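User:
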Amino acid sequence: MTRTVVEQITQAGVQKLRFSGAAPGRYLTRAALAGAFIFVGALLSSLCAAWFYDPLAKLLGALAFSAALTLIVLLGGELFTGCTLVMSVSLYDGRVRLAGTLRVWALAYLGNLLGILVLCLLLAGSGSSGELLGAYLALIVPGKLSAPWYLLLLRGVLCNFLVCIGVFAGFRLQSETAKALVIALAITTFVLTGLEHSIANMAYFALHALLNGGADWAAMGWNLLWVTLGNLLGGAVLLGLPLWYAAEPEKTQSFS
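Assistant: Predicted structure:
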């Protein structure tokens, strides 16, 4: 981690802050697109895991889910979990303030949710692969909802540590192939380990509720609460803080 990379990240944080303040609707739309990309990755991962009933099915599903972050890094979009890294480094470096950081996080989270809900409704309405997806989600969602809060928190921390490694690769590496490779390694690791990603869970929970009915909304909200907090800590503290601290210090000017 060098001062040059910190400057790249903090400049991105300042731009997010300014754009979210000047055009919140447009920023929300960018976040909705990122949510749509996460939906694509979650859908592809679920279908791959459901179609192939062999020991390699989970590996195939894990690799497939990396498509989500690859789309976001290469094509653009405002993903909440990635914003935890970018905005926290900008905050530590004195380039943004806490109120602005919280605004960016809130808009990204809401936009991600909106993008996911729209595509989940469209998919459920289309009837495509409904039985296959419903059966698969009926197997994995109850396990997510029954885990105790401290496990959800820790799984969320570790998950976004890995996700933000992929986001960091987007700043650190120049080759798109190299970025995609690092993202695939990081995302495959988190999926195979069974860690928890708040935005991906939005997609799983929404599809499960639409396809299978009888959703436990309280349990879904409880899961998202602790996983979201864990994701925030994983990106902002476990990865963001040491990456910022390891760089050469430099005095900067605060932006409101």
